[in-house]
Amino acid sequence: MKRYLILEDGTVFPGEGFGSSIITTGQLVISNNRTGIEQSVTDPDTEGQIIAFTIPSVGNSGINRDFYESINSQCKGVVIGSSSLLTVDKSISFEDWITSLKIPGIKNVDVRALAKHIAEHGEMKASIMDTHDEHAIDQIKALVLPPDLVKRVSTRQSYPNPNMGLKIVIVDLGLKYSILRQLSYRDCNSVIVNYKSTVEEIENLHPDGIIYSNGPGAPEDLPKTIETIQILQKNYPILGIGLGNLLIAMANDCQIEKLPQPHHESSLAVKEVASGKIDFVNHNHSYTLDPKYISASDFIVTNVCVSDGTIEGIRHEYLPIMGVLFEPEAAPGPTDGYYVFDEFIDLIESVRQQEGVRSQWN
Questions:
Q1: CA within 20 to 30 Å of 15's CA: 141, 253, 254, 313, which one?
Q2: What is the number of alpha carbons within 13 Å of residue 86 lying toward its C-beta?
Q3: What are the strands of the beta sheet with 278-289, ordered from one edge?
Q4: Are 166 and 28 in a shared domain?
């Protein structure tokens, strides 16, 4: 079936439809991920997005349904050059998998030309449609993308991820399963709560530390969450990942900016400023921190992207707060970023020791 990927600037890329036959519109994102396609499609970060994969052929190792990052698919559509019909063991082919998820797809698209166009003109809205006339382009231009993306992916009810170690409250902005796995490996006793949870609701759980997770959308759409962070950060160690990192920065009078070349890649080099160590980690973000505001704040920069100097990690000089813009849980991508979880646990233990010393002297 002939279908078209239509960008809001009027550019049209023809292809062949597969998956769901519905018309879909979303933010077009260029992904350079070579592996972990299952994780990319089910990542809550991709809520409201059409993902265009730049690898020549998708699904060459089959699809492993154990690699989900959420129960349901999150993205609005997928764009590929070609796909493999290969299956391994109990897996299914990429096209059959996308069909089972009821996601619209379009293949045989010139993804290299598409990636070049987005690199030159920036991220924009796009639709997968059956026609490409003037009316279709006008529809895309007029459509306003919803600002409530976090609301769509955040848990509606609190739930536990039990263990016997530190009590970690995770504010779900679009939580990936792999974050829970990493905390479980470290014996953390986690409780996941809705992004609108109040200070009182979080404090009633008596956390040793709080994590603000990754998630979709723009951080300025979450002013109440920023206000909650401003109160909680005075009393609890906090880790922000992705969107959570941006919210922590904004809660401390820093500003964010849209990246001219967004980061959507599973193996992008990041340098640890203090040691010079290079880590290869997963990135999935279109925003970054404005360095002018970071330098004037009480944050220090802990990590930067090697290729463009983007700030990828921060830490507060006085408060037990840290954050990374990359995704340390490695889903997909290398495992170099796992140390972030260890550093956060060390930070919590340090605070607990200090509180213990103070209580002895009081």
A1: 141
A2: 12
A3: 159-161, 189-194, 167-172, 209-212, 238-241, 321-324, 311-316, 299-305, 256-272, 278-289
A4: no
Q: How many domains does the chain have?
A: 2
pLDDT in tens, 261-304: 999 998 999 999 999 999 999 999 999 999 999 988 999 999 99
Say yes or no: 344 and 202 in one domain. yes
For residue 147, the SS3 value is coil
Return the closest-CA partner of residue 265 out of 246, 245, 285, 282.
Answer: 282
3-class secondary-structure state, position 139 = helix
Last residue of a domain, one of 102, 126, 142: 142
- Structural domain including 132 reads 2-142
Contacts of 119 (CB under 8 A, 6+ apart): 30, 261
Contact 249, 324 (CB under 8 A): no
> In whole angstroms, what is the distance from residue 153 CA to residue 144 CA?
19
